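Here is one chain, start to finish.
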Amino acid sequence: MTTVTASASSDLISVHLRADGSVEQLRIDDRALASTGAALAEHITEVMGRAHTELVERRRATQAALFADPRIAEASAVVEAAMDKPWPQRPVVREQDPDDYVRPVSYLMSALDQRR
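Its structure:
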């Protein structure tokens, strides 16, 4: 889904959107600057709206193709069901006894002492 992109343009403005709808590229021809700020803003908004509409249509088509695969639909249902359940409890971790580290060393030291 993240590879879905969309773009729209007029003779003066072009916009390219990423899959999340953020603007990847906006190009404004110098001729567009000859109009008023309000006209330029309206033109940009119109072109971006067309790009966003295209993006939504492409996303829907991609999702429809993806969920047409029964394996994907089943996996998605499992994930959705898991999202409705509470998080599992974390296992209780016992505190480490400092003697757990001392015993092996003392055992080895006593074994070495016995060999001497």
